[in-house]
Amino acid sequence: MQEQERQSDIVALCGRAILVEPYDEEVYQFLMQAQLALGDQQSVIKTYESMSDLLFANFGIMPADESRAIYREAARTVNERSVNLGLLREQLNEPGSVRGALLCDYDFFRIIYQAEARTVARSGAAVHIALISAVGCESKPLSRRSLDCCMDNLQDVIVGNLRRGDVVARCSVSQYILMLPQANYENSRMVCDRIVRAFSRQYPHSPATLSFTAQPLVPNS
């Protein structure tokens, strides 16, 4: 009981500290560790996702390895008891009817990429990755407000113009990375060009200029 009270005090203290220092990742780590000690895995996941969004939106960085380790521990222990396959399928399914590409965090994109690379090594299937970047006119950097607005709009355009089997993640403050299964180089460039034209059509007054590159996914030998 005393240990639970101590961990609860840490949670409360970290919550107050975050109000003062919202970008201090170490405080979030203490908070997540206390939440995990209390058995509150869902709060750990929510805290991590909130911190990750905050760090990425303001500094373009991903959480540190220590933070990701706490998150993975929480994700591993969400189901405290043995569950049947039917329940797991319900947990794994996407909610509702989803259209367009799968949007995920860059950390999860890396896992999907590595899994796809293994498949390509075995099957020889064509898979390409593409990078779409946003800059200001004459390659000048955009203001923070303009960049945030541009990236939100670009995300919607990318997801809406890709297939359900495609995957997309924001990999920097001004870039999205795409995975395009069953697409050759020419098709991948056509897809990116379609996204650029769709963005220009939907947001003709945007101060952003888009560019893209595409390369085949080459598995490790």
TrEMBL record:
Pfam families: BTAD. Residues 4-73 form the Bacterial transcriptional activator domain. InterPro entries: BTAD (IPR005158), Nucleotide_cyclase (IPR029787), Rev_trsase/Diguanyl_cyclase (IPR043128), TPR-like_helical_dom_sf (IPR011990). SUPFAM superfamilies: Nucleotide cyclase, TPR-like. Gene3D superfamilies: 3.30.70.270, Tetratricopeptide repeat domain. This is Bacterial transcriptional activator domain-containing protein. It comes from bioreactor metagenome.
